[in-house]
């Protein structure tokens, strides 16, 4: 048997520890963990997984809030040659049951708060279950395991996505794809001086997972402070207490932070934010950079691309752009017939490179429709400028066709967010007998502000083409979000009387 492959993620973790040595690297709820402790515990947990029957290629579910055990579990699973199968903790029992049965998972590591849900969803399935704070300790009680050899194309992670638009589908990501994407993101991060970062993202999401892998490529000792889940007040307190310099966020998190009393906290240590997971409205970017005194660096990607396709770098920050494609990724913009379009012209963003998924688990037909001739058809609309910077306009499936005219929801949302009273906005199409689809929106107001839906309609009408502005705006207590902070358009459509 040959040795571990060059892109084996367990090898990456091993070399990271050898390169950077032992230091206090992770803070969580009052406790520091050293890199040596994380390394040793993951090696023991790998041995524990093997002792409990986990074999190379087996899927191991990790369903927890953000805790240090996530860092340890990912390394341990890869070391054992198994497949990390992260599951967002905000699942219904039927959704979780589907993931468990579809993946054929043989083991699971879960938070104690989720034990009841997991037990109900896993009823009748043969899954070795380890509860953090309980029998999980058995995994770390064994002898450290050596690294199981894996090839570049071996499955490293199986991530389920699409739960807000239909039954979740498993996305197969390879060791090399995640390795290359992590390296590309780390190289972009090296253009900032920040080494002390706050992690509020769910580590069970593709964005959170790739941030962890990027850290394994780092040539500097990076300190991470982990939030169990995102809480704006807690986020601000941790930045002030630990003099943190950066944080990876999704736009909705930024919008919620801007509604806090920022002057009550010392945030002078902040240098930069990374923004991904959804398009960032220009008004929010400008407001965040002014309020926090940072540079907001955007990125773009999707689960099917191993999370990252492009990212901004500090020296070539360009307003409105999500940066240039990372070194491992090739991007082309194509029309609906699949033909390349000129620079500056919108079309579907297509991606090629090692980060493209191996395919959808148990769904070769959907795989063939999504990856054609090696190109991942993302379903996102955007363009490249003449210098190769990528701009994302919207999701193709979210496009509203009103009276024959194309309306991108993001254009409407960006205008509504220019109103000082609006904190979050979501725009969708609603069936209409005359226009085919009518443009409607829901908003969440910033604390202490009041404005009516009718006033917001007039605000948008004064700033947009006649066919674009929303005919209805509904003020909600909270705009529906997914578990990772994206706008939940399916829920919004339900609210306005449409489900598609």
From TrEMBL:
Chain ranges of the AMP-dependent synthetase/ligase domain: 14-361
Entry-linked InterPro entries: AMP-bd_C, AMP-bd_C_sf, AMP-binding_CS, AMP-dep_synth/lig_dom, ANL_N_sf, ATP-dep_AMP-bd_enzyme
Domain AMP-binding enzyme C-terminal: 412-486
PANTHER family: LONG-CHAIN-FATTY-ACID--COA LIGASE, MEDIUM_LONG-CHAIN-FATTY-ACID--COA LIGASE FADD8
Protein name according to UniProt: Class I adenylate-forming enzyme family protein
């Amino acid at each position: 048997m040959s040795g571990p492959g060059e892109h084996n993620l367990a090898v990456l973790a091993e070399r990271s520890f050898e390169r950077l040595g032992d230091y206090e690297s992770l803070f969580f709820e009052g406790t520091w963990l050293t890199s040596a402790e994380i390394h040793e515990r993951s090696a023991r947990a790998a041995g524990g997984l093997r002792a409990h029957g986990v074999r190379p290629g087996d899927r191991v579910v990790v369903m927890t809030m953000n805790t240090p055990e996530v860092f340890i579990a990912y390394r341990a699973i890869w070391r054992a040659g198994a497949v990390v199968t992260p599951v967002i903790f905000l699942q219904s029992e039927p959704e979780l049951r589907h993931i468990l049965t579809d993946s054929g998972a043989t083991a699971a590591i879960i938070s104690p708060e989720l034990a009841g849900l997991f037990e109900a969803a896993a009823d009748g399935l043969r899954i070795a279950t380890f509860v953090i704070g309980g029998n999980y300790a058995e995994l770390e009680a064994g002898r450290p395991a050596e690294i199981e050899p894996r090839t570049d194309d071996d499955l490293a992670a199986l991530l389920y996505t699409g739960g807000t638009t239909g039954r979740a589908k498993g996305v197969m990501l390879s060791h090399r794809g995640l390795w290359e994407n992590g390296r590309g993101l780390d190289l972009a991060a090296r253009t900032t001086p920040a080494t002390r970062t706050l992690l509020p993202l769910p580590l069970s999401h593709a964005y959170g997972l790739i941030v962890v892998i990027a850290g394994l490529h780092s040539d500097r000792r990076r300190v991470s402070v982990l939030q169990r889940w995102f809480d704006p007040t807690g986020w601000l307190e941790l930045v002030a207490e630990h003099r943190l310099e950066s944080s990876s966020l999704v736009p909705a998190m930024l919008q919620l932070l801007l509604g806090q009393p920022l002057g009550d906290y010392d945030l002078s240590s902040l240098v930069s934010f990374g923004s991904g997971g959804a398009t960032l409205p220009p008004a929010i970017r400008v407001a965040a950079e002014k309020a926090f005194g940072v540079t907001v660096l955007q990125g773009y990607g999707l689960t099917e691309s191993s999370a990252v396709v492009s990212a901004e770098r500090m020296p070539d920050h360009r307003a409105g752009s999500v940066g240039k494609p990372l070194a491992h990724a090739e991007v082309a913009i194509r029309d609906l017939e699949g033909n390349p379009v000129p620079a500056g012209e919108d079309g579907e963003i297509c991606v090629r490179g090692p980060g493209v998924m191996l395919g959808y688990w148990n769904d070769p037909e959907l795989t063939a429709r999504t990856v054609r001739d090696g190109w991942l058809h993302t379903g996102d609309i955007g363009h490249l400028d003449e210098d190769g910077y990528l701009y994302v306009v919207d999701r193709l499936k979210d496009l509203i066709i009103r009276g024959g005219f194309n309306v991108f929801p993001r254009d409407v949302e960006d205008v509504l967010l220019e109103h000082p009273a609006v904190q979050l906005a979501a725009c969708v199409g609603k069936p209409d007998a005359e226009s085919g689809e009518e443009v409607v929106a829901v908003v969440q107001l910033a604390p202490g502000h009041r404005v009516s839906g009718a006033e917001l309609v007039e605000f948008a009408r004064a700033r947009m083409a006649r066919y674009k502005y929303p005919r209805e705006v509904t003020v909600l207590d909270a705009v529906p979000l997914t578990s990772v902070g994206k706008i939940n358009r399916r829920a919004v459509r339900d609210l306005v009387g449409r489900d598609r």
